[in-house]
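Tip: read the tokens left to right.
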């Protein structure tokens, strides 16, 4: 155990214990750390006690020194008083330090564990806040006071270059391991982040290593000068090879096909199965332009703030264009990924922080933008939740887009002349959405996860993908033949003939299966025991309906009308809406069209329709039907347009977010008023138009029998229903893994809804993402649903899945599934039944 000891003095005992636990984790208990915090007063436990501080110092006292870190106020006074109780000889070896409590404690214990003397430990503690400020871009010079020491010019110097592969880069614990390892050797260790083009810094300084801002995929240059240079570099290389003891990839709810295999043949690489399918083609490298930001002083701060606003506005226009194209190419549900990017650019907290820093500090827009984006990224990384990696990818994507616009760089070009397999470190969601599946036959990257947005888009585009392969793939020459299998997660460089034959056979079988699914897509979906299930499409644009019909949709189960209200400064007029509804109905050619009335609020705000006060939890706030009932002009305008479009078409009205019978009755009264107005004006409409509701709130399930008496049909929205049943915000990474529509609690809700609907003689469909998951199809059939509504691209596969199943077997699975105790066990049950061919 290191001789130098640390004492943490705080008003809050919980805070002090938390800091001690965090610091101790950094060095695996190698440093003695004592706590003196809080007072013995149950009603007011906040405070400091000099006697406690004295006892804490005495318990860990060392002749090598004791460093005392304090929070504020009386903590300093208590520490000073405590020292007076010590023998005079010990007083000289106790040092009070003004360093920040959390950052200072981490830096101090790492320095102590590395063998630094008391003055080096104090210097590291004091430099901790500067290290943090440098990483956030708040200061321009990284810890210039701490410089590399001089070395004997005759000593041998060795160097290595390594790629950082652990998910969060050199965050606190890996950085501490790096510093502790470097400090074991006599040689001087210097490190440079080649990706960020930093200066060389000392490898035995936690603060200097932190300023490098090392992220996953960054390349480091490490030099060692001294008699044991080779041994030092070998030890550091072993840390990287072991991934600093962290899992390379940690995933929540990975796709059913995801698994990793070990290399078994020459030239074989193993990775993560992210998108199924086989690809055989030459490789082409993609290296996005990395924008290096330098900070400088600006005089005209108003002009600089305007420059940032202009870049953000242009970025919004670009993302909206990507969203529109993605909606056409990959469907509305997957394209919604880019909605989150638009919301990020509208975040008032982020924008206000950027504006304040430009105006107050006279810093250029690029440096300020990079700093605030890095802070958001860091806030996700601190939680160390694998779900966050998806969100971080989007933050990086949109952040780089704005930086590109600020710097005047041209967009990266992913255009390929010939079909190829794309090899890269990683792909952003924007990169992936812009790929041409006829030219990009496969994707192979050294990072990424099967649940990332890029992987989701690749699956939707039908591009096979293997992620997380060894970095050696980046050194392949363009034109090198590669084969990859996105189902098994394997890739082959210059594959041997027998591998090519096997993959060609698998590719042929896969293509035949796809063709079979497409061939039956326009036929009814009928189970093996003769029950027909309607398969409709979820759409969010006119373009979507074209794809839906071409994919075999028997109608539209959900038209999300929100797209009409986006990217504009006022609500659409009645005539504008009428034209769109008629155009969609015309394409459907008398197939059913269910139009959901405006569903905004929660995670779907509109700038010109925002509430006049902030909502602590918008998902439980003023959204859906609640909003429309309070905006009667808006609601009536939409109802008039829907009714007018209903003439000669099978149009139905669906009300979102229904929680009470009163809401349904109020909406029906308003609908009746609109119908009366149209009658009085002599305007035609379908007088027998059917009205249904979304079941997505637990209260609606509880009173489903009462609601069924009021409407003509139900449609279950499992996305919202799951989060409300599980009391888990699906956008909150800490609890999002609980939001699983296959959880028995959710399945019981669906079953109860179906039973109430059928008892009342009305139909019930399901339009959540679960409907498109063919792994879940036997569950949905067994629950008794009459209709499934999915994204257009999923229709052929869903119909094919239905045709392979029987209702009787599916009902037996459901009977067992609702008795399980977790979604995981439900999935295991389905896998077992599939494996034993019981369904």
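Filled-in amino acids:
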């Amino acid at each position: 155990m290191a001789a130098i000891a640390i004492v943490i003095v705080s008003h809050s005992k919980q805070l002090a214990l938390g800091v001690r636990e965090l610091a101790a984790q950094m060095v695996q208990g190698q440093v003695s750390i004592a706590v003196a915090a809080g007072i013995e007063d149950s009603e007011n436990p906040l405070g400091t006690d000099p006697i406690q501080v004295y006892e804490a110092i005495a318990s860990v006292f060392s002749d090598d020194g004791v460093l005392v870190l304090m929070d504020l106020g009386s903590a300093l006074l208590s520490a000073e008083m405590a020292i007076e109780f010590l023998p005079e000889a010990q007083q000289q070896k106790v040092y009070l330090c003004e360093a920040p409590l959390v950052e200072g404690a981490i830096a101090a214990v790492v320095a102590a564990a590395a063998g630094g003397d008391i003055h080096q430990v104090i210097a590291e503690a004091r430099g901790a806040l500067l290290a943090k400020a440098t990483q956030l871009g708040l200061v321009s010079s990284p810890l210039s006071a701490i410089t590399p020491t001089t070395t004997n010019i005759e000593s041998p110097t060795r160097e290595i270059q390594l790629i950082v592969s652990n998910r969060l880069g050199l965050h606190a614990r890996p950085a501490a391991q790096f510093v502790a390892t470097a400090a074991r050797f006599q040689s001087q260790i210097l490190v440079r982040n080649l990706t960020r083009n930093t200066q060389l810094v000392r490898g035995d300084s936690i603060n200097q290593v932190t300023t490098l801002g090392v992220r996953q995929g960054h390349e480091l240059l490490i030099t060692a000068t001294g008699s044991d240079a080779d041994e030092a570099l070998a030890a550091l290389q072993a840390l990287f090879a072991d991934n600093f003891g962290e899992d390379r990839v940690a995933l929540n709810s990975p796709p059913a096909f995801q698994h990793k295999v070990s290399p078994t043949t020459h030239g074989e690489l193993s990775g993560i199965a992210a998108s199924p399918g086989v690809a055989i083609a030459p490789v082409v490298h993609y290296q996005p332009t990395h924008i290096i930001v330098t900070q400088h002083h600006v005089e005209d701060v108003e002009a600089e703030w305007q420059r940032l606003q202009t870049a953000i506005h242009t970025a919004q226009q670009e993302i909206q264009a990507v969203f529109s194209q993605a909606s056409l190419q990959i469907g509305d549900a997957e394209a919604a990924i880019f909605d989150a990017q638009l919301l990020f650019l509208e975040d008032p907290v982020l924008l206000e922080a950027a504006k304040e820093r430009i105006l107050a500090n006279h810093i250029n827009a690029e440096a300020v933008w990079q700093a605030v984006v890095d802070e958001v990224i860091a806030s996700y990384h601190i939680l160390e939740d694998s779900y966050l990696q998806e969100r971080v990818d989007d933050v990086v994507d949109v952040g780089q887009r704005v930086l590109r616009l600020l710097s005047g760089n041209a967009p990266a070009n992913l255009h390929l002349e010939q079909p190829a397999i794309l090899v890269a470190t990683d792909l952003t969601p924007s990169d992936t959405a812009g790929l041409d599946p006829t030219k990009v036959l496969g994707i192979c990257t050294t990072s990424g996860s099967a649940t990332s947005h890029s992987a989701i888009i690749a699956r939707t585009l039908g591009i096979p993908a293997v992620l997380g392969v060894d970095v050696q793939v980046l050194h392949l020459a363009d034109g090198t033949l590669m084969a990859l299998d996105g189902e098994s997660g394997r890739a082959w460089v210059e594959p041997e003939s027998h591998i090519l034959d096997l993959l060609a056979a698998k590719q042929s079988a896969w293509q035949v299966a796809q063709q079979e699914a497409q061939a039956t897509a326009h036929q009814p979906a009928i189970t093996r025991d003769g029950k027909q299930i309607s398969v409709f499409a979820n759409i969010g644009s006119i373009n979507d309906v074209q794809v839906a019909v071409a994919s075999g949709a028997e109608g539209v189960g959900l038209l999300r009308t929100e797209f009409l209200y986006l990217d504009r400064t006022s609500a659409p007029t009645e005539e504008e809406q009428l034209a769109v509804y008629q155009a969609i109905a015309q394409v459907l050619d008398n197939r059913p069209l269910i139009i959901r009335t405006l569903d905004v609020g929660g995670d779907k705000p509109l700038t010109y329709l925002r509430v006049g006060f902030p909502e602590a939890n918008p998902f439980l706030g003023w959204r859906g039907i609640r909003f429309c009932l309070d905006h009667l002009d808006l609601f009536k305008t939409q109802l008039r347009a829907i009714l007018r479009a209903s003439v000669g078409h099978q149009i139905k009205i669906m009300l979102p977010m229904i929680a009470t019978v009163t809401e349904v009755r109020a909406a029906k009264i308003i609908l009746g008023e609109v119908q009366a107005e149209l009658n009085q004006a002599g305007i035609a409409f379908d007088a027998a138009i059917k009205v249904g509701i979304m079941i997505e709130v637990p209260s609606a399930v509880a009173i489903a029998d009462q609601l069924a008496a009021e409407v003509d049909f139900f449609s279950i929205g499992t996305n919202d229903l799951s989060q409300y049943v599980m009391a888990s915000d699906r956008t909150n990474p800490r609890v999002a893994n609980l939001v699983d529509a296959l959880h028995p609690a959710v399945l019981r809700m669906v079953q109860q809804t179906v039973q109430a609907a059928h008892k009342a003689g009305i139909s019930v469909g399901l339009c959540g993402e679960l409907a498109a998951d063919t792994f879940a199809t036997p569950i949905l059939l067994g629950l008794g649903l009459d209709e499934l509504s999915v994204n257009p691209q999923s229709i052929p596969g869903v119909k094919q899945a239905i045709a392979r199943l029987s209702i009787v077997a599916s009902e037996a699975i459901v009977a067992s599934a609702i008795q399980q105790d977790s979604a995981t066990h439900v999935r295991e049950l389905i896998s077992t039944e599939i494996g034993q061919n019981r369904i």
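The chain is about 45% helix and 15% strand. Confidence is low (pLDDT under 50) at residues 140-153, 248-265, 383-389.
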